TrEMBL record:
One GO term describing the cellular component: cytoplasm
Catalytic activity, EC: 2.7.7.3
Name the UniProt record assigns to this protein: Phosphopantetheine adenylyltransferase
Record localization: Cytoplasm
Source organism of this protein record: Microlunatus parietis
Biological process according to GO: coenzyme A biosynthetic process
GO MF terms held by the record: ATP binding; pantetheine-phosphate adenylyltransferase activity
């Protein structure tokens, strides 16, 4: 039986913290889908198509990882693709407070389990929104994002 999981997020942009969680999750499952959420109401730094590209480029050394975009409920994507596990990275207690009820709701709706991976300490302060802010003011974010993002921001 193939073990499939999904690692959802906005990834605007993908950070080294995201890559750490994705890499660790890729080691736990046969197939890992990195699902980039598309919310038409939100204007991001990168389009959803660009984010899919950046995630795919950043994960090219992980052969069992596929980057896709999705809209709607994550559990519907799980049902359509035969995915039984959602993997989420958590940096702080605030993340845990947000993710825990969502994990319970997803399990209740469809039986999909959620694995919450604590971030590596060196990435616990890195977020896409901070990267966007630093970059927006011309700051150097090369220590926080993979090369494809650095290149695209330049």
């Amino acid at each position: 039986m193939v073990r499939r999981a999904v690692c959802p997020g906005s990834y605007d942009p993908i950070t080294l913290g995201h890559l750490d969680v994705i890499g660790r999750a890729a080691g736990m499952f046969d197939e890992l889908i990195v699902a980039i959420g598309h919310n038409p109401a939100k204007k991001g730094r990168f389009t959803v198509e660009e984010r899919v590209e950046l995630v795919a480029e950043s994960c090219r050394d992980l052969p069992n990882v596929e980057a896709i975009q999705f809209t709607g409920l994550l559990v519907d994507l799980c049902r359509q693709r035969g995915i039984g596990t959602i993997v989420k990275g958590v940096r702080t207690g605030a993340d845990l407070t947000y993710e825990f009820p969502m994990a319970q709701m997803n399990r209740r709706l469809t039986g999909v389990e959620t694995v919450l991976l604590p971030s590596a300490p060196e990435w616990s302060f890195v977020s896409s929104s901070l990267v966007r802010e630093i970059s927006g003011y011309g700051g150097d974010v090369t220590a926080f994002v993979p090369r494809p993002v650095v290149d695209r921001l330049a």
